[in-house]
Amino acid sequence: MRWVVRIGSLAAVLALWQLLTASDTRAWLRFDQLPTVVEVVERFAVQVAAAEFYHDLGASLGRIMAGFLLAAALGVALGVVIARSRWLGDLLRPPLEVVRPIPAIALVPIAILLFPTDEQGIVFITFVAAFFPILVSTRHAVRALPTIWEDAVRTMGASTPQVLVRVVLPGTLPGVFGGLSVGMGVAWICVISAEMISGQFGVGYRTWQAYTVVDYPGVIVGMVTIGGLGYLTSAAVELLGRRVTRWLPREALV
Amino acid sequence: MSVHVRSLTVGYGRATVLSDFSLDVGPGEFVVVAGPSGCGKSTLLRAVAGLVPFTGAITVAGQAVRGPSRDRALVFQDDGLLPWRTAVRNVELPLALQGVPRAQRRARALEWLDRVGLAGFGDHLPRELSGGMRQRVQLARTLAQQPSVVLMDEPFGALDAQTRASMQDLVTEVLSGTTTLFVTHDVDEAVLLGDRVVVLGTGEVERRRDAILAAVKA
Fold this sequence. Notes:
Chain A is built from ten helices and two strands. Chain A has helices spanning 2-22, 37-48, 51-84, 86-99, 108-114, 118-143, 147-154, 160-198, 203-212, 216-244; strands at residues 26-27, 29-30. In chain B, the strands form two sheets. In chain B, strands 6-7-8-3-9 form a five-stranded parallel β-sheet, sandwiched between helices. In chain B, strands 2-1-4-5 form a four-stranded antiparallel β-sheet, with helices on one face. Chain B is globular, with a radius of gyration of 17 Å.
């Protein structure tokens, strides 16, 4: 019964969209310029059959994965280091705190100047975007770790590296995955924006390209594709997170 | 292995929690330190475990305590298990840290779980076990570690009376002959378990201990 309501609500929105655009409604908001649902679906069918579509998908996904994985590795490592070593915290935090409030997308000019290829610049933007949420949530998770687990393992004779591997990393995973989820979200925002500004392939580039050549159904196809990719990658992070934090009491799941 | 504590003083910030405290535990002796909350008995254990800085001297088996070591196992009141490891993997942990090969440590961990009455519960996560069972797992883990000295910090403080009684029996059985320093605020428990009871803090506890000992002897 609830499924009927859910699907019905989605169908109603699509029907309203079709109605407003097909009738070229202009009531302050202008629907006459927007493509109809039918046009978008037809356009989607054409694009899905073309190799270019998959080339763009591959390009965007490759950038996301490269930037996000780099951010995850470095964000977790630095988050742990900053939380656990006062000296390294003092050394690393000031420059990081200065860069952190700058939205990653504002670094596009720097990325263009700094990197030999646009490709590397886009990955850099994506990396910066995902890096800070992961770093900050890792740092908080390490700080919030109950000391009793570390005490227990130390009195079993664990060395510092053993404490990191056996206690700190597994114990902070719930918090780290919170940061990974947020990081994946902002990584998509930034990869699409960066592609629109300086890309040569990719879903973001294709979407903006469609807009500049007045191919409005193509714009909507691009938007829907981005939404789908964002959903799939976030779901993948979420699923992995649930698997590795299965030990948590259910209600505390991040 | 004997434990010698000489003129132990421990402070957190400006507060002195223990001051000029001395204690000797003979090889194989089960000594209970009893006292009210806040008297410094947990701090004493943490100092012997090497987890807090102190002044004075602590030696275990002739060696000065400078930091934590697998030779001095600490059993916590609750939540001392790693919640993401199953019971058997918690018991395996000290063996893993010592580099015991996987198959061998699994077999030994299962034996210890069996010994504390938890055969068949190895695959359970700590949150799937009751408080008493979790303390049994901690005990199995401690036994697997084979330390020279066992330090127990109110290990049954969070348990109901019945579970506590069965745990006390178990501890008496499996730790007999092991040098143990056991901390509790419960004077009855202290008198029941200890070869010797040391009182930390107010004279009230001391009077209670003597009254119970007199009653037991009468």
